[in-house]
Amino acid sequence: QVRFVESGGGLVQAGGSLRLSCAASGIPFSLTTMAWYRQAPGKQREMVARVGPTAISIYPTSVKGRFTISRDNVKNTVYLQMNSLKPEDTAVYYCNRFPGPDDDWGQGTQVTVSA
């Protein structure tokens, strides 16, 4: 079945860095556009990065220049390198396909950025 397992979150001070990993299974990973999403308390889930099968990546303005998404099609894993973290980056981070389907969400990994 489809499964996403996220890891790498933690508590970091503002300006710090974290690298998230997401292991995917049950999907044709190398043919799939993958994305990282985040959801902060009381807010809707938002996409923060996506990467296509040919490694072309897209970022919203809020994280562009600070976050880098990458993928390993041998390991079926997608990564998110987050630099210059800000308190507003605090959220639970998830990976999934883009643009959907909107199901099979994993448990996510908590990222907390202290001021």
Largest sheet: 6 strands, mixed
What is the count of helical runs? Answer: 0
Order of helices and strands: EEEEEEEEEE
The residue-averaged pLDDT reads 97
Cα-atom radius of gyration? 13 Å
Cα-to-Cα separation, first versus last residue: 40 Å
- Are there runs of 5+ residues with pLDDT below 50, and where? none
Sequence of strands across the biggest β-sheet: 2-10-9-4-5-6
Approximately how much beta-strand content do the residues carry? over 45%
Number of strands: 10
Helix content: under 10%
Spatial shape: globular
Secondary-structure content class: mainly beta
Task: Write up what this structure looks like.
- The protein has 115 residues and is mainly β.
- 0% of the residues lie in helices and 49% in strands.
- It is built from no helices and 10 strands.
- Strand 5 and strand 6 form a beta hairpin.
- The relative contact order is 0.32.
- The model has no long low-confidence stretch (mean pLDDT 97).
How is the topology of this model organized?
Blueprint: E1 3-7, E2 10-13, E3 18-25, E4 34-39, E5 46-51, E6 57-58, E7 67-72, E8 77-82, E9 91-97, E10 109-114
Parallel strand pairs: 2-10
Antiparallel strand pairs: 1-3, 3-8, 4-5, 4-9, 5-6, 7-8, 9-10
Features:
four-stranded antiparallel β-sheet; mainly beta; six-stranded mixed β-sheet; globular; 115 residues
Task: Give a summary of the structure in a few sentences.
This protein is an all-beta fold and 115 residues long. Helix content is 0%, strand content 49%.
